[in-house]
Amino acid sequence: MKRIKSTLVSIFLVAVTTISAQQKLPIYLDATKPIEQRVENALSLMTTQEKVALCHAQSKFSSKGVARLGIPEVWMDDGPLGIREEVYWDQWNGAHWTNDSCTGFPALTCLAATFNPKMAYQFGKAIGEEARYRNKTMLLGPGVNIYRTPLNGRNFEYMGEDPFLSSQIVVPYVEGVQSNGVAACVKHFALNDQETWRGSVDVQVSDRALHEIYLPAFKAAVTQGKVWAVMGSYNQFRGQHCCENDLLLNKILKGNWKFDGVVVSDWGGVHNTDEAVNNGLDIEMGTYTNGLTTNGAFPYSDYYLADPYLKGLQDGKYSESVLNDKARRILRLIFRTTMNIHRPWGSFGTAAHAEVDRKIADQGIVLLKNEDHVLPIEPQQVKTIAVIGENATHRMTIGGGSSSLKVNQEIVPLEGLTTRFGKDFTLVHSIGYSSGKENSAEADSLRNAAIAVAKNADVVLFIGGLNKDPHQDCEGVDRLSYGLPYGQDQLIDSLTKVNKHVVVVLISGNAVAMPWVNNVQAIVQAWYLGSQAGNAIADVLSGDVNPSGKLPFSFPVKLSDCGAHSFGAIAYPGVDQKEIYKEDILVGYRWYDTKHIRPLFPFGFGLSYTSFDYSKPVANRKVYGMNDTIRVTFRLTNSGKMAGAETAQLYVSKPKSAVERPEKELKAFQKVFLQPSKTETVTLLVPVKSLAYYDETKSGWTVEPGTYNLLLASSSQDTKGEASVEVK
Ligand code: BGC
Predict the structure, then answer these.
(1) Which class is 612-727 in CATH?
(2) How many alpha carbons lie under 13 Å from residue 223 in its C-beta half-sphere?
(3) Domain formed by 365-553, architecture
(4) Which of 75, 152, 203, 434 is most exposed by smallest CB count within 10 Å?
């Protein structure tokens, strides 16, 4: 009894000592305290050196914490399509770990093509789980630069040409990632819309186009998605590099939008200590990209925000309060992520993540043409399928630059098709062309072999497009031409001469010219789809999944139809590193519609194996005030024989205006799933405030009173019904 008593006493004493030890915990370690208190407390315990040490890289992908205080380092990783493999401390090269093979997710063009914010949340949540499992503080993505020209080598990493669509997709993506206690880092802020001269080109664009077209997705990520990090871009804007751009970082991002997170530089995007210190950058990464340890030729201590910054502070050149602001933001990031005791554990390379990839891919694939219902492929009509094209076997998770991945699995198209069709059909594969060999004798023999295979098949699946090699959808370099590379156009032509049933499956993140558009029977835009690519393509070609993707950017007939290519070199790629966005607010469909140029395939377009009927749209009122929301209601019916989904789109036009207006602009959309012969009543919401234009004369937004036309549409070129309303 005595012994039990004394044991109880000692347990009590241990408990009391633990509690009192906890009570002595400094506030910054006390997870029950609000983050801002913890930030202030940590800051008050730090030396100037320690604060400066937070502000620059210590390795290729990490920056320091405060080891003395037990505050962890910041670890970053690309992004945005999967969690990149571990690299050596000071190099880009993979470090040959055996446990870092990730799930490959679809390119963000595909995600945008789902027109489904729920898919964006699932994407963000799943990729965030992978980042968390790998103990990353920050995912370097998503990218939301606007699709201005089909030549931009990085379009596949972005969400298309429309600021409203990309805003609707980026917000849930960010929320999904950050639900894991991992920061998303929205990039590349801003106007990094081409890769040619990306490190130096100086972009001039009007305030109006800046605010209406190029900034909204970033703004949505900050003000609605509450993103914890933003990456500055390589290029210049009005004569100042964007990682050190006072207008973009201090005035707009941190001032107007009240961003309380961290601005990270793009790797090697910093050029000047004074500007980096004072113009809003918080963490400098990748300067002198071979930059080694403290002993190397370009030590991390030489970074603009390292010793030169410290010296400037000691000399009284820089203010301590600016440094404190940077340190606060970085501490806040760490408390939100690695020092958040509630963050979940994450998971990596799981079957569930592969399923997320496949679902998004299934919903993002766009059916562009389907004559005589050649698709889906049915065993009654078809026995032999010829699969032609190098992309049938090309692994697309590799290449393209910093988004390149080491994945745990990649089902290439041929593999997916074989799994799905192998039992009921005879599949014959021939590569038909080979990258880089278009003018050789070998090219002829490849082509002849493919033609022979195509001749004897019931249907030909040509699987081609681009491939993430340099100039073929790749970071660092733009595409050199709008046409398909490696003699594919010629090959498709030859195939259509020997077989009437040619289906082109394009694997690309960009629009391409299609001189053969009228000669092939079907066209499927299949993007870069990640680990489950082949299965998703087979899902759609077989009809297991009814295609429901819509184009997040227009396909012009030819490059010169495109706004950015209509004003000579000064508008793209620039002259003497200067570039003027002369098409101004008329980007993408805004240009084609307003200038009455018919695109090859319009923004928002995508077919289905079923059909949909729209009833007339009705607005809930005739007259609205500035703070009202317009509610447009209509009935959507699946009038075909197969379950499917339609994305109803609402465009708004303002016929009489004090300023130039695009013919119409997307203001709402909804993806609706319907069983055959079912009808759903759908309501789309348009806040009157979202009808504003950016008024340069007052540097703010103006809603013009008057009549607005609301166009209910199935694509930017296919209006199903109209209503008009008055704004007072
Ligand atoms: C890219 C960024 C990327 C970074 C780190 C840069 O070259 O522009 O998008 O996150 O490298 O890999």
Answers:
(1) mainly beta
(2) 15
(3) 3-Layer(aba) Sandwich (3.40)
(4) 434
Paired tokens of 410: 């990649």
| Burial (Cβ within 10 Å: 0-12, 13-18, ≥19) of residue 591 | buried
Whether residue 223 is predicted with pLDDT greater than 70 in this model: the reply is yes
Distance 209 CA to ligand 1 centre (A): 25
* Spatial distance between the Cα atoms of 103 and 526, rounded to a whole number of angstroms: 18
The domain spans of the chain are: 34-102+113-336, 365-553, 612-727
Banded pLDDT at 439 (limits 50, 70, 90):
confident
The residue contributing the CA closest to ligand 1 atom 3 is 402
Burial of residue 175 (number of CB atoms within 10 Å: 0-12, 13-18, 19+): buried
Q: What is the DSSP string of 199-267?
A: TT-EEE--HHHIIIIISHHHHHHHHTS--SEEEEPSSEETTEEGGG-IIIIIIIIIIIS---SEEE--T
Residue nearest to atom 7 of ligand 1 (CA): 267
Q: What is the CATH number of domain 34-102+113-336?
A: 3.20.20.300
Q: How far is the CA of 151 from the centre of ligand 1 (A)?
A: 19
pLDDT, tens digit (0-9, with 9 covering 90-100), for 127-163:
999 999 999 999 999 999 999 999 999 999 999 999 9
Over residues 284-295, the mean pLDDT reads 68
Distance CA 74, CA 188 (A): 19
Predicted TM-score (pTM) of the model is 0.96
C-beta 60 within 6 A of ligand 1: no
Confirm or reject: Cβ of 140 under 6 Å from ligand 1: yes
CB of residue 486 inside a 6 A radius of ligand 1: no
Q: Per residue in 519-538, pLDDT tens? A: 999 999 999 999 999 999 99
Whether 612-727 and 365-553 are alike in CATH topology: the answer is no
Q: Which residues pair with 719 in a beta bridge?
A: 713
